[in-house]
Write a structure and sequence with these properties.
This protein is α/β, with parallel strands linked by helices and 233 residues long. The chain has 6 helices and 7 strands; from the N terminus they run ββαββαβααβαβα. Strands 1, 2, 3, 4, 5, 6 and 7 form a 7-stranded mixed sheet that branches. The N and C termini lie far apart (70 Å). Keywords: GTP-binding, Lipoprotein, Membrane, Nucleotide-binding, Prenylation. The small GTPases Rab are key regulators in vesicle trafficking. One of its GO terms (molecular function) is GTPase activity.
Length: 233
């Protein structure tokens, strides 16, 4: 299968004056073991469609979801469907680049896919970070919840504890087949991404103010350097 052209992966926001529409483009990774339903989740979310007969993803695939978030905000989610067999390879560093959020997916009916979750999380955290160096927000999806469940997914309190310990932003039981919690999980992740965006923009503003002050001092623009009277307050 020929590789698909790589789309523009620039993330971020286009600032707009108050009252005008703002647009955001965010790259989100969908990763996890082979056969956990990553492609099915994306198809359900983007196209409201489910099929039992997807071929295994080879390499990486892409999908775009456009959200009218509110009256003034359009969000474009670039969803990267990364093949399970690509796990922990050198190429994942390329695939992960510039991502601002992620889903890690496991199959509730196959314990081995849950056992691999921590490896995916460590690989993710080691290869991509936010501009301030912190991990990108990642939500754990316990997929195929319409089937018989194995392991601690049957104990929500233990799942909460596991996610807190491993640094997940949260977890959802999902079913692409029955359309359970797909929209809710995506909305939760986008909320976390938007919050990070605001925090980073706020910090950038403070850095800009600090630079301006340092620049003035360096150029002798403070009152003492210019020989004028100053207040020691």
């Amino acid at each position: 299968m020929a590789p698909k052209p790589r789309p523009n992966t620039t993330n971020g926001s286009q600032a707009a004056p108050s009252g005008e529409r703002r647009e955001h483009l965010y790259k989100i990774l969908v990763i996890g073991e082979l056969g956990t339903g990553k492609t099915s989740i994306i198809k359900r979310y983007v196209h409201q469609f489910f099929s039992q007969h997807y071929r295994a993803t080879i390499g990486v695939d892409f999908a775009l979801k456009v959200l009218n978030w509110d009256a003034n905000t359009i969000i474009r989610l670039q969803l990267w469907d990364i093949a399970g067999q690509e796990r922990f390879g050198n190429m994942t560093r390329v695939y992960y680049k510039e991502a601002v959020g992620a889903f890690i997916v496991f199959d509730v009916s196959r314990q081995a896919t849950f056992d691999a979750v921590v490896k995916w999380k460590n690989d993710l955290d080691g290869k991509v970070q936010l501009p301030d160096g912190s991990p990108i927000p990642c939500i754990l999806l316990a997929n195929k919840c319409d089937q018989q469940k194995e392991g601690i997914v049957n104990q929500p309190a233990k799942m909460d504890e596991y996610c807190k310990e491993k640094g997940f932003a949260g977890w959802f039981e999902t079913s692409a087949k029955e359309n359970i919690n797909i929209e809710e999980a995506a909305r939760s992740l986008v909320n976390k991404i938007l919050l990070n965006d605001k925090l980073l923009q706020s910090n950038d503003g403070k850095d800009g103010e600090k630079f301006s002050l340092d620049h003035k001092i360096a150029n002798g623009e403070n009152s003492r350097a210019n020989g004028s009277k100053s207040c020691a307050c």
